UniProtKB/TrEMBL annotation:
It comes from candidate division WOR-3 bacterium 4484_100. It comes from the Bacteria. Residues 9-131 form the F420-non-reducing hydrogenase iron-sulfur subunit D domain. Keywords: Iron, Iron-sulfur, Metal-binding, Oxidoreductase. One of its GO terms (molecular function) is oxidoreductase activity. InterPro entries: MvhD/FlpD. This is Methyl-viologen-reducing hydrogenase subunit delta. The keyword ATP-binding does not apply.
Length: 139
């Protein structure tokens, strides 16, 4: 991930909804920019903030976290925990000198392939405008 010429986005997707939404986007052949990689998690609440910080330290330009819509989590309240953690993370990133908009949280269900495509393309465009994270602010 150290090549700084192209954006590198890590998309953490919950297994039950947003990963299926990503699959729907792919099987529908919706056009998406190729600068992202998906990591599937059973629930968005299982994505530890240390994983996100590690991804940044290894050269990721941005992190997309996707999960079930509030009220539809297969683990009851996992997405509410995710919302609290991402809010905390954005505050931490700001204190580290990393733009908080490099992390995006979205709720995407299994039948929202079009939304997945739109979110990914918009996020990649935004991250391309920001460019790579400056080496001196990384921890």
């Amino acid at each position: 991930m150290k090549d700084n010429n192209k954006p590198k986005i890590i998309a953490f997707c919950c297994n039950w909804c947003s990963y299926a939404g990503a699959d729907a986007a792919g099987t529908s052949r919706l056009q998406m920019k190729p600068h992202f990689r998906i990591i599937r998690s059973m629930c968005s609440s299982r994505i530890d903030l240390e994983l996100i910080l590690e991804a940044f330290s290894r050269g990721a330009w941005g992190i997309l976290v996707t999960g079930c819509h509030p009220g539809d989590c297969h683990y009851v309240d996992g997405n509410y925990k995710t919302l609290r953690r991402i809010t905390l993370l954005k505050s931490l990133l700001d204190n580290l000198g990393i733009e908080p908009q490099r992390v995006r949280l979205e709720w995407i269900s299994a039948n929202e392939g079009g939304k997945f495509q739109k979110v990914v393309n918009e996020f990649i465009d935004e991250i391309e405008r920001l460019g790579p994270i400056k080496e001196e602010v990384k921890t």
